[in-house]
Amino acid sequence: MSLSTDTMKPLAGLRPKLEPWEVIKWTDSQLSSMYKDWGIYFDRTQNLAASMQYFTKSLDIYQYDTETLRRRGCIKRKEARAPDALLDSKKAKEILRQYNPKLFDPNVNLEVCDSLYESNRLEDSMRSLHQNLKVFSHSQAQKVLDRLNVITENFHDSLSDATAPAVHRLIDKMTLDKANQPKYEKPECDVLSILENEPELLSPLEKRRRKREFKIYNQNYLHKCWTDASFLKSIRENPNLLIDQFTESSTHLKSLTEERYKVVRTFTKMLHTRCPKYCRQIHKYPNEELHQKYQQENLFRIQYQTRRNMFKILRNIRSLIRAGKLHKLTTFVEEVMGDYVTIKTNRIMPWKFEFINEVYNYLGLARINEYKIPSDMKVLTGRQRLLTLFRLPTDLGISQTKARDSILRELVRRTNETDLKAERFKFLTTRYEYRMRFAKYPIERSYLLHELAQAHLDNNSFDTCCLLARQSIDEALKGRHYIWAVLSALVACKAHAILGKVEKQKEMLTEAFKMAKKLKNIDLCLFIDICLKVNTEEIELKRQLITPEGSLRRRQRRSGSSFENSPSETSVHASNSP
Q: Rounded to an integer, what distance in angstroms lies between the CA atom of residue 38 and that of residue 57?
C-alpha cells in the first residue's frame, strides 16, 4: 500500500487558530449571510463596533449587497459619520440602478435623504425628497412627507420673520470679524521653509467668555448631559488618565476620548444646524419685554454680588495686614487680581479702576512697613550692615563656598528629583508675563514688573532684576504711584547690595529717597537715609583701599594675618632662642 507524497508531508509551523464554526468549509454566500445576520444582531444590542465589523466582513465577500450597504450606512450615521454613510447609501443606489433599473428600493432612497440631512445639507435633502415623492407610491409617500415637514420646520426656525433681527445681528458680527482679520501677506523668503504657526493668545476675559459660551451651547442642546460633555473635553489631556509610563493604554485612551468627544461635537453641530441658538432663545422667551426684564434683573444680581465680593476682599486684606501675614497677603492679592478681577468687565464691575488701585495700594503700604531698622542690629561692617537692613543673608561668601563644595551632590539629586525652586520660578515668570500682555493700568503693570524683578532676585538673576525694577519705576511714575516706585527701587538696591555695586547703590537710594519724600513717610525716609549713610561708609572704605596708603595698610594686614596663621613657626623660633 503506497501513500501519496502530499499525505506523507508533515505540517510546517502551527495550525491557524480557528473558531469551532470556522472549521466547516462554508460557501461565500453562506459566510456573507452569516456575517450580515450577526451585524443585524449586534445592531439591535447597540454594539455598533461589532456590528460595523461584521457588516464590513460581509461586504468584503460580496460587495454588491445593497441591503448590507444600507445597514452599514445606518451604523455610520449612529456613529456620527454621516458623510461616510452617504457614500454607502449612494453606492447601494447606484448598484440597483446599474444592475436592475426596474428594481426600486424605497429604503435605500430614504437612507440617501437621511444621510444628506444628517450631513447638514438640508437643501440637498429637501431636493432629494421631492424627487422621491414623484416615484413613491401612496403608502410609501407618508415617510417622505414626514421628513419634508421636519426640514420645513428647520428652515422656519432658521429664517422666519421672528428670527430676522437675530440673523441680521449675526451677519453684521460675522462681517465685522472678517473685516478685522489681518490680510495674509506672502513672506519674502528665498528658501522653501515651513512657516511657524503662532498659537492664538487669548486674554483671561476672552477665555472666560468662550468657556461660558461653550457651557450655554451644551446646555441648550444636551440639557442635563452638558456636564458629561464638559468632563469628556477636560480628560482629553488629563495627566491622571494619560500616564506617560503606560504607553499602550495611554495611546488607546487618548484616541478613545478624542473619538468620543468628536462624536458629541458632531451631534451638537447637527442639532445647531437644525435649530440655531438664537431661535432656541426666541422659543424659550417668546415675550421680548419679559426677556429683557429677566436679563436686567440678572445683571443687577451679578453686579450686587460682585460689589459684595469686593468689600469682602478688602476686609480680608485689612485683616491680613493687621495680623502681619505679608506672605499670605501677597498670595491672596495675586489670586484675587489674577483670577477674579481680570474676568470682570466694566459693566459688571463699574468701580474696577478704583478697586485695583485700592488693592495694590494696600499691598504696597504693607510691604513698605516691612522696611524698618531692626532693634537688635549689631555693629557690623558697611556691607554686612546694608545686607542686614535689607533682610538679606550676610554669609554670602560662605554660602557660595558650600554650594561649590556640594555641587556634585546637587547634580545627582536633581537628576532624580524635581527642582521645586526652579519650577516655581518658571511658573511665576510665565504667569506674570502673560498678565503683562493684557494689563491696562500703570499701577498693575508696575506691580507685575516689581513681582518679576523680585522673582529674578530670588533666582539670583541680579542684572535682569535691576532692569525690570527700572521698568517698574518708569511705569509707576507714569501714574504717579510712588509707593510701587519706591518698592521697585528698593528691590534694585537689594540686587546692588548683593553684587557690591556701591556707586549704583548710591544712585538708586538717592532716587528712592526723593520718591519717599513725596509719600511723607517718616519711617521710610529714615530707613533710606540710614542705608545711604551705610553705603557712603562702604564707598569711603573702598576709596581708602585704593589709595597707596590703603594698599600698604592692606599688605600689612595680610602679612599680619599670615603671621598669626603660622603658630608652628613662632614656636620653633621660641624654642631655638637662648
A: 11
- For residue 383, which of 492, 501, 490, 488 has the smallest C-alpha distance? 501
175 falls within a domain? no
- Is there a contact between 535 and 565 (Cβ–Cβ < 8 Å)? no
* Cell 428652515 -> residue: 155
Query: How many Å apart are CA 517 and CA 529, to the nearest integer?
Result: 11
Select the more confidently predicted residue: 176 or 185: 176
Q: Tell me the pLDDT tens digit for each residue of 190-210.
A: 555 666 677 788 999 999 999
- Specify whether the CB–CB gap between 99 and 115 falls below 8 A: no
| Three-state secondary-structure class, residue 182 | coil
Distance CA 267, CA 77 (A): 10
> Is residue 45 helix, strand or coil?
coil
CB under 8 A, 24+ apart: contacts of 12-17: none
Q: Are residues 397 and 518 in the same domain?
A: yes
Q: For residue 524, what is the domain's CATH number?
A: 1.25.40
First vs last C-alpha separation in the chain: 130
pLDDT at residue 401 greater than cutoff 80: no
Burial class from Cβ neighbours inside 10 Å (0-12, 13-18, 19+) for residue 252 reads exposed
| pLDDT digit string, tens, across residues 464-521 | 999 999 999 999 999 999 999 999 999 999 999 998 898 999 999 999 999 999 998 9
Domain of 488, in residue numbers: 382-404+440-555
The answer on 444 and 307 residing in a single domain is no
The rounded distance, in Å, linking the Cα atoms of 566 and 570 is 7
In tens, the pLDDT along 31-76 reads 999 999 999 999 999 999 999 999 999 999 999 999 999 999 999 9
What are the angstrom distances between the C-alpha of 306 and each of 97, 279, 525? Answer: 68, 31, 38
Q: Are 492 and 535 members of one domain?
A: yes
Tens of pLDDT, residue by residue over 208-230, are 999 999 999 999 999 889 999 99
As to burial, measured by CB atoms within 10 angstroms (0-12 exposed, 13-18 middle, 19+ buried), residue 48 is middle
Which range, of 152-161, 191-200, 242-251, averages the lowest pLDDT? 191-200
Sole residue written with cell 451677519: 171
What is the full DSSP assignment across 388-415? HHTT--S-HHHHHHHHHHTHHHHHHHHH
241 and 117 belong to one structural domain? no
Give tens-digit pLDDT for 12-33. 556 677 777 777 888 889 999 9
Q: Are 521 and 502 in contact (CB under 8 A)?
A: no
**Integer Cα distance of 161 and 177 in angstroms:** 25
Of 70, 65, 101, 105, nearest to 88 by C-alpha is: 70
